[in-house]
Amino acid sequence: MKYKKLSNKASKFLAMTGYTVEEFEALLPYFEAEFESYIKDYTFEGKKRLKRTYTSYKNSPLPTIEDKLLFILVYLKLSHLQETQASLFEIHQSDANKWIHLLHPILNRALAKTGEKPAREAQSVEQKISQNLSKPGEETLEDKVFFQDGTERPIVRPTDDDLQKMYYSGKKRFHSLKNIILINAFCKIVLLTITCEGKKHDKKMADEADYDLPDGSILYQDTGFQGFTLPDVTIIQPKKKPRGSELSTQEKENNAAISKIRIRVEHAICGVKRYRIIKDKLRNWKVGFRDMVMETCCALHNFRLNFRPWHYAPIQL
Question: Is this model's pTM higher than 0.90 or not?
Fold first, then answer.
């Protein structure tokens, strides 16, 4: 599989990478700069480069920078077994493993340079929000509206009994990893919390994230965040059905109205899970990979929205 050939087939290219050729080429300069910066100082194995400078060898399975970016995007999008990934690019499985763990951190850093990586700490949220204003210096209602929700992704059942209990999600009935995402009204992910075990409750994760929103903001959330509040922020969430009784007709209509607006966060999660590496059962055990891959896919989602934004009816309170 080579970029030169695949890029001539627009629909197949989109299906294999999640990006159009235009989006791919827009990301490419950032990726190339990060690759050259890394390979100048380090070898493929991550050791400090002492004397020899890097040159792409004649029979390289990924001879061009386009092929390298294609390789890692295909892996994230399709979540192949490494043996399958190796067969697609006509290399050995061990080499596929090396390329994956070389190129993935480089792609992650390239996305950071685009400014599309979500904040990971509470201190960075305000800066990320100001970065994504529709009209800098002139806030609209939609610039003040945010949505949060939890998302889970399955993992292989841990062999250790204690870890098995920790990562088991009673809600989903499988072993999982969990994050809270905070998005703005344009479906860009503003904050991605640290990856936690599937057993942890949404509200507890939001409390531990300890982030703030600008005064006067409006935050939509579901009933899993019951009791979560922020200072000077209006919280909007559906009303829970009281135990032993039913919601009134008016309360059901209000819940439906809230759900029609809150659906944006579900769409954003689906946009991130186009990449099957976080939708299917995660088999990669490399230290740090599980958290970084979620961050990478969120940033890929944000970058894509610059070219294919989603359109919704204006929010009316």
Answer: yes
